[in-house]
Amino acid sequence: MFAVDIDGTIAEGRPAALLDYFRETCRLALVDIPEDITWWDIFDLPEVVAYRKLHRKRYQRIRENVMGSLLVLRACTPVPGAVAQLRRVSQREEVKYVTIRGDDLPSQKTTRAWLAQLGFPNSDSVVFCRSFFQKIAQVMREPGEHVIIDDRYAQLVEALHEVEEQAGDDPRYQRMIEGARRRLTIVAFGATALAEQDLFPGVRTVALPSWDQFDECCGALLREPIERGA
Fold first, then answer.
1. Domains and their CATH numbers in the chain
2. pTM to 2 decimal places
3. 33-51 burial, b for 16+ CB within 10 Å, e for fewer?
4. pLDDT tens digits, 163-185
């Protein structure tokens, strides 16, 4: 099974929607914003930083719910190459989406509708998680070999280390770590190279800079190789 993350892996948030989200939730004016501002630069705007310092707990809740906002979700655009590559992969493997997004019903409906509208395969097959640990646990419950494609691969590795720390006291965690070493591959989306801290001992990890490089970097992970041009 290929378990594919959504945000940052196959979906890109639009800065304009994020600005509107902060205007609505924080009641900030946010005027005279550069047209070419990036998603991550918005979090460092002076008005946003000042709000964070004054309302730390409220800001934390607002920040955590960004990808649960219907305003933000509906405005997402597909990462180049993602739709075509996953449609090809789905001809050989089961494709499922595993995401840390808002798990309320409106967010779930919007997510599935977005996937279907853009032509992603198996758009109804979405698992909504609340942590990276839960992502791994949900995937490893299924039998067979699994590939997780995620731009936040470092957090997946951190979660595995946390599980390993608990493994000595809990046989369930021991089985999870053993299963991960036998059956799990992490594909680090957006990475051109992997440092030692990006790896978990015994778990295969592959760098995938972009979807256009899928065949070159990840073609061997498929049970049946995809023919070029298929």
1. 2-10+77-221 (3.40.50.1000), 13-74 (no CATH)
2. 0.85
3. eeeeeeeeebeebebbeeb
4. 998 877 788 888 999 999 999 99
